[in-house]
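Morning!

As promised:
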Amino acid sequence: MARTVTTQRKSLNTAIAWGIGLLIFFPVLWTILTSFKTEAEAIADPPVFLFFDWTLENYAVVQERSDYMRFLWNSVIIAGVSTLVGIVVAVPAAWSMAFVPSKRTKDVLLWMLSTKMLPAVGALYPIYLIFIELGLLDTRTGLVIVMMLINLPIIVWMLYTYFREIPGEILEAARMDGATLRSEIIHVLTPMAVPGIASTILLNFILAWNEAFWTLNLTAAQSGPLTAFIASYSSPEGLFYAKLSAASTMAIAPILILGWFSQKQLVRGLTFGAVK
Amino acid sequence: MATQHSRSAARVMLAPAVFLLLVWMLVPLTMTLYFSFKRYLPLRGGDQGWVGFDNYVRFVTSSAFWPSVQTTLLIVGGVLLITVILGVLLALLLDQPMWGQGIVRILVIAPFFVMPTVSALVWKNMFMDPVNGLFAHLWKFFGLAPIEWLSQASMLSIVLIVSWQWLPFATLILLTAIQSLDSEQLEAAEMDGANPLARFGHIILPHLSQAITIVILIQTIFLLSIFAEIFVTTQGSFGTRTLAYLIFQRVLESQNVGLGSAGGVYAIILANIVALFLMRIVGKNLDA
Amino acid sequence: MGHIVLDNVKKSFGDITVIPPLDLQIEDGEFVVFVGPSGCGKSTLLRLIAGLEDVSSGTIRIDGQDSTAVPPAKRGLAMVFQSYALYPHMTVRKNICFPLRMAKLDKAEQDRRVEQAAAVLNLTEYLDRRPGQLSGGQRQRVAIGRAIVREPAAFLFDEPLSNLDAALRVGMRLEISELHERLKTTMIYVTHDQVEAMTMADKIVVLQAGIIEQVGSPLELYRTPRNRFVAGFIGSPKMNFLEGPEAAKHDARTIGVRPEHITPSPSEGVWKGRVGVSEHLGSDTFFHVHMEGCAEPITVRSGGEVDMHHGDAIYMTPDPGHIHRFDGEGLRIA
């Protein structure tokens, strides 16, 4: 039973929560605002908050100068393809574990998760070396492979938890109806799991988009995604607040929007189902 | 329960994922182990043969090692303390009835979706810059001398940046956990005469204990290997060189692969200890 | 055709034997009901026939062909599940059509069969809805529709009515019986409800702990239960069992008398007891009578409106032609 709360109490809650919420959000807000200022306004003393000449110039300059679109495209390809390949590998695996569990299923699942926990820095040089050998350094293919592998445990895990919610009887019904394993997965399981698969794709796209160890260490000019693009702004000579803000806004905007849609899945995906 | 047929199909379908992850785990691990027993300097003579545990000893005895461990622990500990405490408070607040709850939630969660390089750069330049940063303006407004955050208070700055990134994660998970608490339990406690503080201490906090444990474990694993935040802000200077960053420098900057690999093995062992505890909890949940 | 033979079929999960070796013949066109308490292995047996579980040993022959290793999709059987197992993302039409699509029948034939099944099951106007928009009874009919379009060798029903409310259950029971009359296809039906078994079956298979206790027509089981378990399981309310001196009088360890074979009287009879709870159903009245030397109260059926109350003395006379005698092992003494 929901209880009625006094309006006063509710107003107070609202005021405090909004205050804190805006405080936490402020750096993002400030970045977005600054991206519409001129460089002079961006470093004005005292700072201007809303009353400045709004301009889109920074966005144009950033795009022109640093070829933003190429980095964006790299990000989209790396995050998108790695997630999709991951899904293709993970759906059958999750099907196995969810619907034909054996004594070892739990161990396999935990082992998969444990690979996610190996510190990347421990594998840095070997991967670096292998990439040089195979000519994968600074290629999108290379990063797609790495992103797919580091997110595969989470993809398998999430799909597994979603699949487990689908009653096994429905798949058995499909089998009785004459469906082959392939049709069972394509015509019955996958359409039923669409919401779960979509959330999995969303969350892993975000994780891959924001990944900043491998993307910084394995890419250079050719295949760098937005994480690397932004990092290139850290050198002092390239620093202009308004342009930095415009670049940052462009790098985070798509993900902020996707992220807001996937709050619930975030919990499921990142706590491995331990918090519901 | 299944047939022989479906069991063998299951094995075939599981195989690609297992194979890929096995390769992904074993190949680098074996190579790191291999290098860690060698004197290997790619730019200065390459492979110079086996050296036994030399690298392990050298890595631990180098003057950079203990400070890096200390830095790592400080960052992990500091961020955990801040995010867990503030996370519990924020979760409690967000669970209260209010107007625009959904929007506040979105505002609070946003930092988690900001890519690490962006948040590091924004904080470094637009907030912590001693001349043009907002903090500098704020300090001046109160008549104080601006602080050079990333050199004078480097650790505090890093902890602040990383905490800002992880607070949403802690809050979101703790909020989810609070919302799963049966409200009848709280009402029963209220009927039994428990005041809000007692209700928090005796019912909410115990209910949250597992979620808090999980937040701590997961964050620890991620925090042990934070990289971009340091790479973009201080590059490991001013006492902000963590173990992970030290290994990175040994391997890629000074190209001492043997030494760096030994460090990598230490890092793997450390992460595994934490992972072990996390796996226990996840495993228990799997049975349920 | 739908002639199914189980020969020495055994099922175990790990070390636990769920079904010890068992033989069973199901004739073409028969309506066979597997009945037994929960956990007796009846559903497992059905799943073995369906091919959803492997037998641990033994063979299953369908129409003379060894089907033991044939996957479920190729056995030519159709199954209706307890949860109906409808595909929630497909319309009723697509649900019913699914097996035909899988069999790659041509489109016109698919449509023809779906329309026909829908007409038989009164589903025509619901064809474009999704399962979520249907009532329990309608979902049940869709599940049946999905089974009949395939024209299978046999239908398998796994407790299909247990999710319906009591009134609907009676209706669906009749519909399924009706369907069997019309199609004359073999049906194997699993239930824990002996009323369903009695009302629908040509042949009942009573199972307990994976063992077939008795196979026979409903009336055979009612009249001549092979052992105490069957005697107690078939018939409602349950048969009364008496041990000790009363049983000894009939040269048995235990005797059993059904409530409907005991005549109550306020004044005279063989056994004397005291009325406990009485249940007045209108057409019948059931007295639960406490009798000295009996741990369980004895249930007695009486006609409509009898004026006896809690605590009254009551006399009972069992019909001598309907006293079932059982030996020390619980087996029927002929």
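The CA atoms of residues 269 and 317 of chain C lie 5 Å apart.

Hope this helps with the figure draft.
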